[in-house]
Specification:
heterodimer; A: about 300 residues; mainly alpha; MetI-like fold; 2 domains; two-stranded antiparallel ribbon; about 70% helix; B: about 350 residues; alpha/beta; D-Maltodextrin-Binding Protein, domain 2; 12 helices; about 40% helix; about 15% strand; globular
Chain lengths: ~300, ~350
Amino acid sequence: MAGAAAVGGSVRSETYASARNWLLLPSWAVLGIFVLAPVAMMLVYSFLTKEFRGGVIWEFTLAAYDQFFFDRGLFGDEPAKIEWTYILIFWRSIWQAGLATVLALLIGFPTAYFIATRPAHTRTVWVFLITIPYWVNLLIRTVSMKFLLRDQGPLNDFLLWTGLIDDPIRIINTNAAVQIGLFYSYLPFMVLPIYASVERYNFALSEAAADLYADKWTTLRRIVIPSVRPGIVAGCILVFVPSLGAFLAPDLLGGAKNFMIGSLIEEQFKGNAGNWPFGAAASMILLTLVLIILVFLARQQARAEREATP
Amino acid sequence: MHIFAKTAATAVALTLGAASASAEGKLVIYHWFEYIPQELLDKFTAETGIEVTMDTYDSNEAMLASLKAGGMGTYDVAVPGDYMVAIMIGEGMLDEVGDGELKNKGNIAPEWADPSFDPGWKHSIPYQWGSTSFMVDTAVYNGDIDTTDILFDPPAALSGKINMLDSQGEVLAMAALHLGIPQCSSDREQLKAMNDMLQNAKTHWASFNSDTAKEVLVSGDAAVGQIYDGFGAKARAERGSLKYAFPTQGYVAWMDNVVLLKDAPNRDSAIAFMDFLLMPENIAAVSNYARYGSGLSGVGEYLDPELASLPESNPPASAGPAVFIEVCDEATQAVYDQIWTNVKK
């Protein structure tokens, strides 16, 4: 898009180009100060020596990465084995975030489709309704969820009252509660991008498919989903990435019994461990993982677009 | 006597007011959440003209981390617990209060005259002290609760209904008492035994929560919960069947202290604030609010009478020793960090 102006070939294109550079300066400054500098700092810190009780000593070491990947026993003097602890924590987080994404997609897609197929003047109302709960702070919503789910909370009271269960279901302080929390926290991030895509979808295509004897399932699978794919991919990224680093839901709803990536990193800075290089290293490994996933999705997207426009 | 105290207070306030007029007239406090009544801060401002700003934290470690990450030079005073005062002195983060700078220093109770974490109160003054143990809902379990078995090897009725504080220091100190080993043990067998014991105990625990330690007990989500004594008194007020335990194996004692931070931007205001809190009438307002002991003498007449008879601050004869959390050296601490990670992995 930005390139289009420059290749316009007009006499003033050079003026445009230099003006563009100046006009982009604020964005570059913001990116540099708020994104690149912190990440660079984290990268540097992850290779520094840990100072006892927080802080770093400016000496290069791989100790943080070594601690992540190798297990040397409780006292640190046994022969190195592969350390499964942190890999397990990462796996648990990825699994939880992935499941939350799938759940959000299963609920979010029909919701978005429903909204997009309402008469134009009521759509805004539906979107508005979706966003209302999210005007409230995430912490407060998570605590409220805790009140709903607990053993003597409204959900269990209701189920007991209906006679469907005889004893309260244990939800709070389990992985299921974390799951519900993540799904609930990030659902609108799935609904809104998909809605934006479905709204632009040309429903004449569905009619055409029906005229050609495609059943509804085939139409959905072969026509609708490929057309709104950018929205689906964006929604999945927007739910998956924050879920991966979440620590409110695991702490408040899961009882903080098992570290997730977010709480593991938090512990290195705010907890007793005070191991900043290790926290930085864990963050870098997380960042690398997220980048790999994003690059993979971006390539998929690009390929899909190439196929769609021969 | 009372009139005298008031006159003295006014006199001190006038002197301080005069002193602060030449200073900037600002004070920046870094404090625990829910730990000082707003009225007391207003009173300080009214008496001295010093404008107070306060940020809060929820654990000693979080406070240390944020000060080390660039908070030095921002705050004038902070309120670390006993062991954290020792750590901060070791890190060179505290300024020294000169002899005679604090006019009310003589109010410190004789039994707290020379604390191990800051001998001679060179950098700090007492704020509040109390204990950390646990509460049991006697409606769920009515057996003997004065044993650490309740936390680490609980009866079937309590298994899966236990909330622990999400704090390495409090949990591991209690575990050391349970096993009867030193807090900073470097004996490999003892440390392995502690690691194994905690792995087993964890299967009985429902959650780790510090901020909601009181709430989970009051709501009935947890039938056992590690808790501070003053918080426990507040919990009991809301749910009468809760009882604070004093295990025969011992329990954790703590004292929070107001420290003078190095590079304090408003050092004079900080000294004025510390002197203000060394007055029985003012520190009693904190005790009445937070339900903990104060460490000053002469507070009795200002205290809520109910405080003296709180079951949470009156251990029975059978209670074990109250021990402060100890500060381990780096190599030992590394093993404890590993044990804690194993608990939470």
